[in-house]
Sequence to fold (476 residues):
Amino acid sequence: MTLSPPRISRSVYPRKVPSIAFAIGGLTSFIIFASLLLFSHPLGSSLTGYLYGTETTRHLEFHHSSSRDTSDPNPSPDSTINSPPLLTQHREESTKALPTNHVSVEKEDSVETECDLFRGNWFYDPKGPLYTNNSCPLLTQMQNCQGNGRPDKDYENWRWKPSQCDLPRFDAKKFLELMRGKTLAFIGDSVARNQMESMMCLLWQVETPVNRGNRKMQRWYFRSSSVMIARMWSSWLVHQFNEPFSFAPQGVTKLKLDQPDERIMEALPKFDVVVLSSGHWFAKQSVYILNEEIVGGQLWWPDKTKPAKVSNVEAFGISVETILKAVAKHPSYKGLTILRTWSPDHYEGGAWNTGGSCTGKEEPLPPGKLVKNGFTEVMYEQQAKGFQRAVEDDKVGNRSKKMKLMDITEAFGYRHDGHPGPYRSPDPKKITKRGPDGQPPPQDCLHWCMPGPVDTWNEMVLEIIRRDMEGGRSRP
Fold:
């Protein structure tokens, strides 16, 4: 449609009526046309770029399937998902006049009550992270990817956007106010430490805490709000010992799968929010005990003529059920319990000790390229089943309402770019490229760079806490 400008009389005002009517009609047509155009292409879309001149930002949408395919009991680690989530890639136009065009970045107050935080997409946020490796003194060197010489930085800028709402950027002041006078504890293995350090780095930007930790527990105290952040090491979350038991000798780690880690039970009354995570140590050597009977073992089983009753994967599911039930039934703990699901690794072409690699990954996995990891799939399934059995236990009752599953596994399956890879130390002589024979250098494709994707976990933790403490109401 071509709009002709209204004819303007050169004669002395007032104009003739037909001329005025024509002008008003033309102006009305133009307004209607412009309104329709803006409605079809709101600001922040390609129209904005057309109007103002553009620079490109990226947006990868991952529309996740609602269920997982677990029909194959022994899926190949390298097999591609038969029916992957529908993924679409967009290039949206941002403008210098409007530096942030992603609606999901700006609408930080629109979190909905019943929104599923764990189904959505990754988008590129030009704002970048809330801290740097230089602004956080509490950062394990192996996760200090920039300090260790990693040359790319875009992995720091991808943020998570739930499909039906927004996940706000972490608000340290909001967190400290919500948690005033309370203690949050991260309990688990080195990946739990990774998450705790991310939380500390985020909070450190608004207040320097006081170290009140000891050999048993890390503890950091924020004076302004009397908030304590704690971390307890517990590799398996259940009772472990090394003494001889039945036909298992001294020195081999034994796990009583039906007894929680007694150190957790002892410390639990001091906590108001607990984030539990585990699983990766079930790949290590250990003996499994149920009802005072050895029922299985990982990398240990002396009698090959007798099959074990419990595999390491099943042992993991049992351990999850055990710790959750014990926490829920603890007479002196009434707090919120968050179970973070299995954190996926991205060792391609082998395991961590057999040439697996994530070298050179600089963006989330592209559309159609999500690779099924068989071990991740079955470990996630057992963990979810353990959680379900715990919340459905009659003796847990209404306390199950204070147990939340933080389901990060599928979303973080796309983030092969977020690991340290070969940048595990500041050693200037470290090897970062494949050798002449194609073998990759030693690397870490399990833990997460900081800043990086792991910070999203604490955005989710904050939102789960907010929903619990504010009764699930939308943000004001």
Q: What stands out?
A: The two ends are 44 Å apart (CA to CA).
